[in-house]
């Protein structure tokens, strides 16, 4: 079995004293959430995961808070025994910042649970339903070499899965997480199994393809268990002895790996995926030490085994950047020496233009990582720090525990694989805006430069030639809207997370005002930068349920323009008052004075420091900013250019 | 492997499985004596024993085990 995967080798080994530390924690009276998470951040085996989950269960039954872990209730439907898996899910979720509660009916109750309105699953109001099915759960008829019957079998299986989904969607608002099916190992002909219709291998392959296509359109979430099983090897994944003995659908040794994959998917649904890759240089991005070995001495060329290993790290970093991950550098070097290979080495794939923040100095790495986070206006929990040096890794882990720091093996050939195995950048959807995100951050740096040149902020804003576009939620924007609602932490007034079905419900509700806002300027299109949901409150009142903005466009008076747009719709709808709420988290201080700045009056402050604000529509007149306004697709007011 | 060595290793296995550092492994110890020793913990226990001693039990052997003494006899025959 490949130990990188089966032993979660991107995570540090658990401390010798793990059991004792866990027990001490349970018996302490201090805050638990962060401490449980830091224990969970080790490469725990099934026993350790089980014991950690027990501790979490005890804390819950004692009514102890698990803050700041994010609650998530997951119902699991399965045709196999889940009892070993459920505790592993709970403990692995803590690793990813989630306080997971699992609802699981007894196994083999899949259809009954999905299709009955008052079933355990449907009445438990889950946030998500995981369909942890393996191929033995499907109605598969054998029809060897009969292409038509095989196609019917595939359609039958897909139909069954769709029926489960429809049941869940009818009776709850949960997001559905489907799994692809790991094909069985045993072949009938051998290689021919892939070609002959009706063999299990060919049928399961077809089902996976169909299911993936269906989910891409339906907005449900896909957990690629077939891909995971292939990664570790099907013969290691399937263990017939365990199936016979206890109806475990895969080898017990792989439960920690599987549980981590489920947990990172839930974390991604809750917007906890990481956004930035911080690279060390010497012996990470290239082989050798630039300060000692010089430009000719470092290994970064094709044809040299060490050089190719480091080029693979560069290639991966570039590919990640292409899908929207921001790259930064933290190196203990003199700045101009560290930049030399980027500027002059012909074989370097990474260029300075790919790096959003370049920190080469002699400060400790924790200070540098913090500086990078500050410069990008992103939280430490958005950062992944890749460094070959265990001392630096240990330091960053200890001083900045929110930063993800993968362990690396001695052999640089495995660096790239180890980084991807950690799943730090897991995504549940991919919007075209993601492609451009890394570029936005760099354009922002350019805008800042321009600002310095021009001087006055107003003149600067006018020089940007901005166009702001307002639209109600629609199918085209939905994936990005859901993503923003679940990812935005900083300029987010209420930090309410909604799933795709909940967003669709708001979209379709004529009583609800929804806004998706885009901003373009001379540097290019910023894409969707703001989402607003106003729900009806008391008669004549709109309550601003959600207002979030991308940090990329702060300081451009976008919020004033958004308020002007809301007011226009409010007047048309006969609304006299807007009610705003600011719910403080440890991430959204940026938005604390949002409503005060916009002329709202504070009417209440709760003990939780949540504040309530009001604005009278009749007299409100927020400042205007130099940008042209486009308002599209609103049923009531029609298209208007202000 | 001699019995004391087996018991030493088994004690560590039991402590890992049940997360309880006070467990003393004796030949008479059985599922009735440990709170969390249910059928699933039993499977976890056997899997951990297999890993610790680098052996594999057959499905039929697993069904016959009554207490730690039986388990030690089985391990002794295999190591």
Q: Could you please describe the fold and organization of this structure?
A:
The complex is a heterodimer of chains A (about 650) and B (about 80). In chain A, helix 3 packs across helix 5. Chain A is globular. Chain A is of the alpha/beta class and about 650 residues long. Helix content of chain A is about 45%, strand content about 15%. Chain B is mainly alpha-helical and about 80 residues long. The radius of gyration of chain B is 11 Å and the shape is globular. Chains A and B meet through helix 2, helix 4 and helix 12 of A and helix 1 and helix 2 of B.
Oligomeric state of the chains present here? heterodimer
**Number of DSSP helices of chain B?**
4
Percentage of residues in DSSP E strands of chain A: 15-25%
- Can you summarize the main beta sheet of chain A? 9 strands, mixed
Name the helicity range of chain A.
40-55%
Beginning-to-end CA distance, first to last residue of chain B: 6 Å
Helices and strands of chain B, in order, run as HHHH
Show the largest interface.
A-B, 20 and 13 residues
Residue share in helices of chain B? 55-70%
Distance between the termini of chain A: 64 Å
Stretches of chain B where pLDDT is under 50 for at least 5 consecutive residues are: none
Mean pLDDT of chain A: 90
Structural class of chain B: mainly alpha
Would you tell me the structural class of the helices and strands of chain A? alpha/beta
Secondary structure: number of strands of chain B: 0
Largest sheet of chain B: none
- Number of discrete helical segments of chain A: 25
